[in-house]
Amino acid sequence: MNDMRLTERAVDNNGTKIRAKGVQVYYGDTHAIKNVDVDIADKTVTAFIGPSGCGKSTFLRCINRMNDTISVARVEGDILIDGEDIYDKRVDPVQLRAKVGMVFQKPNPFPKSIYDNVAYGPRIHGLAKDKADLDGIVESALRRAALWDEVKDRLTAPGTGLSGGQQQRLCIARAVATSPEVLLMDEPCSALDPIATDQVENLIHELRANYSVVIVTHSMSQASRVSQKTAYFHLGEMVEYGDTGDIFTNPKDERTENYITGRIG
Amino acid sequence: MTDATAETPRRGSGMGSLMASDDHTAKRNAREKRFRMYGLVAVCTGILMLVLLLTSILTAGLSAFRQTTIEISVTLDADRLDPEGNRDPADMGKVTTFGYAPLLRDGLIGTIEGAGIETDLGARDVADLISDESVAQLRSFVLANPDVVGQTIPVEVLASGRIDGFFKGRVTYETAELDKNISPAQLRLAEDLKAADLLRTGFNWRFITAPDASTTRPEAAGLGVAILGSLYMMLVVLCLALPIGVAASIYLEEFAPQNRITDLIEVNISNLAAVPSIVFGILGLAIFINFAGLPQSAPIVGGLVLTLMTLPTIIIATRASLKSVPPSIRDAALGIGASKMQSVFHHVLPLAMPGILTGTIIGLAQALGETAPLLLIGMVAFVREYPEAPWDGGLFDPATALPVQVYNFTQRSDPAFVERASGAIIVLLVFLLIMNLTAIFLRRRFERRW
Predict the structure, then answer these.
(1) How many pairs of residues across A and B have Cβ atoms under 8 Å apart?
(2) Interface mutation vs chain A, best among B254, B336, B343, B449, most A CBs within 10 Å
(3) What domains can you pick out in chain A, each with its CATH number?
């Protein structure tokens, strides 16, 4: 299984989806992200790793402008998706977030039915023409999230009644339902048990075919399992960025090496 | 560091057997036990006070819900009641209650004789058995039904306050000796009437539906206008305070930037909640009546004043329940591209709803029991006319309110009003109970346990 992924990784050679140039983030007086440059490829899983508080989640939340909701946060520099600056005045963050979906650390389904959880995004964006169309979107989203077979008989049951792993896959289905191009995942498995983690990881692997996935993770083994590219963050700086295989076998920076060999973090 | 070394003597509980508690543990347990006792005593004191309060109100007030009436056959003399002879209520209205009083008196004497009861009381003393209010009641009944003129009809009239009090244990033969309003002979006659089943005690609907009556007619005093006035005010408060309060809270909690101005507003809202209610009364008098020219004693003014008073309560409760909605729900909504407003109205507000409703109803309940500001805007007036329906401008008609009516009753000298005041308090408490039960019901109904 692992070998197969390695061979796939070798043939990866996709165009740039997200390009960050000189990104700085300030929380009030705190300089949280220092001058990050990174090109994130399309149809690739990119992992951000690093010790707690290194800024990897902060940077992730810049990509769909979720930092806008924090009044003291200030973002400088450029982030381009398909060549368009998402911090341009003309960009509506609400529209951006339909294009850049996000899955959070703790599964956070709405206290509504499974169906309504997935249908919410398509509804507010007016993606479905009629009920049958919406049903189709919900089914395909749940299928992509590998949840359809488990919930197809109880779509009206509350989403919060599912197990932790199912809830997280429901959140992924909800994010996928609005047909995003980029999927951001902020430690999506940290609240899950190993079996659920395995299911979500398999899912991430499949999602790569259609989306550019960026995943923040504490677990280096997870990064090595699911990602093709890895960026190592340290104290707000992006220290190293490259093919996952290279980062883990042959880190160029001493700080990266210390982290992945377990000396810090 | 030294604790770990073997040479240091070991202290504390590690020494003895686990079966016997050492000094320290015993002390700690005793302290805990004492604290529990204090708590229990406090709770019991509270319950005792509540029981005392309820007992005193119920014993004094429950009798207000029973009323003594006397059944009399009255001959409605056509010559006296309808001198024109045309049965036109407009012309018949010229006959005042003085025209009706002798008919009622003669009817009562006739009824007494008819039942074979002997009494040596004069006509005047016999007539004192029935309430002065009965004459007015008979007059309005005849004016409403002109056809009964000329017939002899049975009417159920109110017994006077003293006679009513006699059958409720408030008046006795001993007190009657000293009372110039009633004599033992009258009480004996009343007992005879009761034995003849002409005098009865039944449930007092009039207490709930009738308007207030003058100080000399406690038996006729009711809460109709006060209940209507209170309901109208609650309507105004609900229609104004709920939307304004919820809108203000949502804006402050979800949309407003965090800066000095919003901090200042926040502090002021908290302070407003602590402003004595009479201050709001003065405000209402100055602004709504003197400046805006709204009528005195009107439920609209009372409602506006109580709205001002209730707003801080609703805002504070709403903000607290908005705050308690986990931020992950907001993130989830924003993360799939919902706008701020969609995330609030689709997800946050429904989750905050039980808290908002509870806060609102508690605010309303507070407003329902509020007296002081209403005194200042003239709702303490003596009002006998029911206000019109709200859609017919009834909000601008004079009315009183339940707590003010309680205050009003207690101001009057006749001891029968003690019973009326306590009865009004029971009605007020029943309304509060209903509101609180509604709050609990709505909470249960809207609460999402998943």
Answers:
(1) 70
(2) B336
(3) 2-260 (3.40.50.300)
Residue B21 maps to a domain: no
Give the HSE-up count for residue B289: Cα atoms under 13 Å, Cβ half-sphere.
22
Same domain, B151 and B250: no
Q: Assess whether B250 and B397 both reside in one domain.
A: yes
Q: pLDDT at position B90, please?
A: 81
Find the DSSP H helices in B179-259.
184-195, 205-209, 224-250
Verify that B196 and B229 share a domain, yes or no.
Answer: no
Do residues B168 and B258 both lie within one domain?
no
Contact state of A120 with B336 under an 8 Å Cβ cutoff: yes
* CB distance A127 to A178 below 8 Å: yes
Find tokens 């409760």 and name the residue: B317
Q: What pLDDT is stored for residue B3 in this prediction?
A: 46
Token pair of A87 as six digits: 């911090």
Given a contact cutoff of 8 angstroms between Cβ atoms, the answer to whether A97 and B333 are in contact is no
Q: Give dist(CA A224, CA A242) in Å, integer.
A: 12
Cα–Cα distances in angstroms (integers) from residue B436 to residues A63, B141, B313, B352, B402, in the given order: 48, 40, 15, 18, 17
| pLDDT score at A199 | 85
pLDDT tens-digit readout, B89-113: 888 888 888 888 888 888 888 888 8
CA distance B326 to chain A (A): 9
B263 & B364 share domain: yes
What is the SS3 string spanning B134-148? HHHHHHHHHHHCHHH
Q: Which CATH number belongs to the domain containing residue B374 in this structure?
A: 1.10.3720.10
Clarify whether residues B299 and B414 are in a common domain. yes
- The pLDDT assigned to A216 comes to 93
Strand order in the sheet with A100-103: A100-103, A182-186, A212-216, A45-49, A229-234, A237-243
d(CA A240, CA A230): 8
- Residue written as token pair 């100055």: B286
Same domain, B311 and B165: no
Overall domain count for chain B? 2
Is residue B120 included in any domain, yes or no? yes
Task: Kindly determine whether residue B342 and residue A109, on different chains, have CB atoms separated by under 8 Å.
Answer: no
Chain A residues inside the 8 Å CB shell of B344: none
User: Is B187 within the bounds of a domain?
Assistant: yes
Q: What pLDDT, in 10s, does the model give residues B111-147?
A: 888 888 888 888 888 888 888 888 888 888 888 888 8
Helix, strand, coil percentages for chain A (3-state, nearest 5): 40, 25, 35
Q: Hey, what amino acid is at B110?
A: G
Q: Look at residues B203, B234, B256 and tell me which one is the last residue of a structural domain.
A: B203
Taking alpha carbons only, the member of A253, A191, A201, A230 closest to residue A49 is A230
Residues forming beta bridges with residue A36, ordered by sequence position: A23
Beta strand segments in chain A, E: 16-27, 30-41, 45-49, 73-81, 84-85, 100-103, 182-186, 212-216, 229-234, 237-243
Element (H, E) at B349: helix B349-368
Does B18 reside within a domain? no
At A199, list the tokens: 């299911």
